[in-house]
Specification:
35% helix; alpha+beta; elongated; 2 helices; two-stranded antiparallel ribbon; 63 residues
Length: 63
């Protein structure tokens, strides 16, 4: 976990997604990994954020 956090916050990172380098990105050393098209969908992100706020009672972003 510490190695992944260090990699994700390193100076070479700029908008990339960091994840495990092993098969199916399930384990392994951290590296830049691919993301799904859904992870870039702003409407989906908004719905996820709203649902998370409603379920937890915590407001994440000021709107």
């Amino acid at each position: 976990m510490a190695r992944s956090n260090l990699t994700a916050t390193g100076p070479a990172v700029g908008g990339e997604c960091i994840g495990p380098s092993g098969v199916a990105q399930s384990r392994g050393a951290p590296r830049v990994v691919s993301t799904s098209p859904q992870s870039h969908d702003l409407a989906t992100a908004g719905r996820l954020c709203t649902a998370s706020e409603e379920l937890t009672g915590v407001r994440f972003l000021s709107r």
